[in-house]
Amino acid sequence: MILVQMMRWTSLLPVLIILSSLIPALLIFATPENAARRRTILNLGGIVIKLCLVLLMLLGVSQGLRFRFEVDFLPGASLVLQGDALSLQFVTLSSILWLATTIYAIGYLQKSQLKSRFFGYFSLCVSATVGIALSGNLITFLLFFELLTLATFPLVVHRGTDAALKAGRLYLVYTLSGGTLLLMGVALLHSITGTSDFIPGGYVSGAVEENRFALMAAFALMIVGLGVKAALFPLHGWLPRAMVAPAPVSALLHAVAVVKAGAFGIIRVVYDVFGVETGIALGLTPVLMLAAAFTILYGSIQALRQTDIKRRLAFSTVSQVSYITLGVAMAGPTAAIGAVVHLVHQGLMKITLFFCAGNMAETLGIHRIQEMDGLGKRMPLTMSAFTVGALGMIGVPPIAGFFSKWYLGLGALESGNDAMLAVLIGSSILNAMYFMPLIYRGWFAQPPTAGWPEDNFKKSRFETHWMMLLPPLFTALLSLLAGIFAGSLASPLGWTEFIISQEFAL
Amino acid sequence: MNMTMPLDSFWPDALIGIQGPLDAAWLLFTAALWLLSSVYAAGSIRGPVFWTLWLVSMAGNLLLIVSQDALSFYIGFSMMSLAAYGLVVHDRTPVARRAGRIYLQLAVLGEMALLSGLIMISYQLGGAVQFAAWQGSDINPLPAALVLAGLGLKAGFWPLHVWLPLAHPAAPAPASAVLSGVMIKAGILGLWKILPAASLMQEWAIPVMSVAVFSAFYGALMGLTRSNVKQLLAFSSISQIGFLLFLVGLSWHLPGQRSEIAVILMLYGVHHGLAKGTLFLAADLFKHRIPTAWLQALLAVLLLTTALSIAGLPLTSGAAVKSELKSALATDELAIWRNLIIAGSITSALIMIKALVLFRRLSSHSNAEPDTAPPGIRKLSAWIVLASCPAVLPWLWPSMRESILYSLSASNLWALCWPLGIAMVMYALGSRLPFEADRMGRWLPNLMVPMSLRLKRTLGRLTQETPDWQFDTRSLRNMERRWNRLWHGSTVNLSSTLLVIITVLTIVLLST
After folding, report:
1. How many A-B residue pairs are in contact by the CB < 8 A criterion?
2. What is the value of pTM for the model shown?
3. Three-state secondary structure call for residue A70
4. Which residues of A touch B (CB under 8 A)?
5. What is the three-class DSSP state of B383?
6. CB-based contact B244:B268 (threshold 8 Å)
7. What ipTM score was computed for the predicted complex, to two decimals?
8. Structural domains of chain A, count
9. Can you give the residue range of the structural domain that contains A487?
10. Largest CA distance in chain B
11. Is residue A446 situated within a structural domain?
12. What is the chain A residue with the closest CA to B9?
């Protein structure tokens, strides 16, 4: 009977989605270093299969089907994978960005060593991320969360230089401590209420009377644990250091997997474990909101102070990811729309920026902001994509970032947190102050008379290797389309409204 | 004339279309000015960056005119504003870069003010974004002030004009033409569309009208102190935008006459946009050597009618709008405003006379130099078409034809002519005085210039500091040393420490 239930396609699909990148990951580890073609086929084959499966699940969920898979794991807590609207948002985002990042990485790492190791861990990372997204309860979530930490470490230290090793060590210290705190929080909550599936509105409200402080402690532990990955101040220290990693890894850290996993976890904990009303009743969401608001401004101001392009982008992530936390913590439906949709929008825009920064570094050896002078003449397409990403971060319409900001702003007023509107507007101004000089230099300044620091890919038909050029153009286009067609149901915003209507039972 | 179309699959609740004659007429004249300026710009300007931003800016401008909801308006508005930065700095000279910097800083600030205002209004009305739902509802003072400031920064009336006299002269002529001709009107159109004529705006009407009239005088008088023709024209725009703002304020003051005032606003906007566009283009055209004498004469006549149409020369579009404006103020209650507007037309005439003098100087200078290139056919044809508008348009366009026929009555003609005459006399007298107006301009510094520079320098300094705080591991080592010393010291040390620990533990245990 159990077997029959397990064999139903609706319960198999979540497993298959994870396996579609896990199996390629294991096969790639076994691939010899020089078998580039086999590796590429494995990578792209896995992606195509995963995208098809995700599409199938999207259609299913929009038709009202339930996807659930369960096996026994711990006493009182089984391993549950389920596909609901929120998890699919994240799965779709990471799958599509995985496609872009893999193509980019193949172009980027052509001359690099240890590619099998790299791509193996890369696919493993995506499996873990998809696992996080599809987790149906906290235990499963925790499992994949730790797996993600471990799978990312080899990527951060991929270059093997001193700086990379140091950054990697720092990354481990931060994320493992975060993971431990998360574990403690989950264990504490498990001892109070047991572990049931994530459900809109949460499942702890019955225990509020008796275990008020224990619940608060569990919440704090979990948020701090997740906040390490979500780069919440003061737990963000690893993120700017980790920018020594190769550009595809930065893209993975900032847009596809790690930071997003933290933010996604916060969404899950606040909405589906504690529930918005319990969160307010315990007095927890205002604290989280203030932390997020501070991080937004702090990240922006720190970004303003950087001279290195990737460091500036890293601090920008610190700031932008906290928009998600802020929206969640404001605890209202409209703010929630802004938060959840920003998960996607920030991912699209930030990955574009990191791809472009990688192109600049690999093609012309540009690492510092001052070196971007006149870049638009040499690399117009890269610079155009960069401009779209940067303007989107500022919140210039019709790029996607504007719509996140609009809903977050409306949500701030709706939930009675008028000051947060000022934070959002202030952050937009700061964003303009640290992104516009880059755009100015790229398009309006004169190129250096002494020539570029390096000049690679001169023989290429395009301004750089086509595999590095296509992904940023693709993601820039997506972030434009996500904004222009924000009102259609198939857009991230349309889907998010569907999610939130379920979460808040509107 | 009402046509609207929801764009369901675009941004949420997107609704574009035309509501009333104001939208329709402004759409047409905006498109026409962009077209003619494009033809003119094609005569000299090259470069993909300029043309890309030109098109983005134009798309934004047209979108905001046809927008019937706040999101579409804001999308169009920021596309237009931000892309226009590239038009301002096109020449890449230090002056252009400075103007561009100030333009951009204030554009971002204005957009953020507008955005927060729009979010607040939309929240207040339950998330509605379509203007149809906004009209007639009462809004709070804060969002209204934010919208007024945000759009005012674009419209450029006093005291939000600081970027305008820097940016408009720095841009290449076709860009100045669209900046002054149509883009600043976007601010006025926005005020008209967004802020409803509800009780709050009725309270604000008189202050806004006062600011508008002050702006009209201020722009004209400041313009008189300029000897660069483009700077003078920029100040004239500040002055003219004052009249447009006055009409918006008047519509709040007299909510019952909103549709009549809409017609005047429409005529005024079209008239000023085309005339000012022509004049800015002329500032470039007359730098060329005009080859033949008959062409010189033709251009001179066209320039003269265009410039004086802004001063309200009879038989031109200027006469039509000035008469309409005065007839709207015919009641006794508004007599003071009527007198102020009449005084304003004297200053308008003064500044236009000065503009003509400067133009004459410019063209005689360039015609005297044999090396100066003649204007190409693109520039000439575009300019001639545009410059004939003030004289031709009143007869072609039915709405304006009524007004011009109305302005032809003897009393109206007299009302138009005498301010012009007084201005001429005043100018003739003033230019004989031993007093250099040009020098006065230098006494009045623009505070925005040093402030913007300071902001830039502060940002520059921020990036030069040590980029990030690092934990100094040496301090840990020192602590460790101290700790070790403590333990390896005397037995006194050890025993005293133990004693302290025991005491603390005892206290803790006893107290629980």
Report:
1. 97
2. 0.89
3. strand
4. 240, 302, 304-308, 311, 334, 369, 376, 380, 391, 395-398, 402-403, 405-406, 409-410, 413-414, 421-422, 425, 428-429, 432-433, 436-437, 443-444, 446, 483-488, 493
5. helix
6. yes
7. 0.90
8. 1
9. 332-506
10. 116
11. yes
12. A488
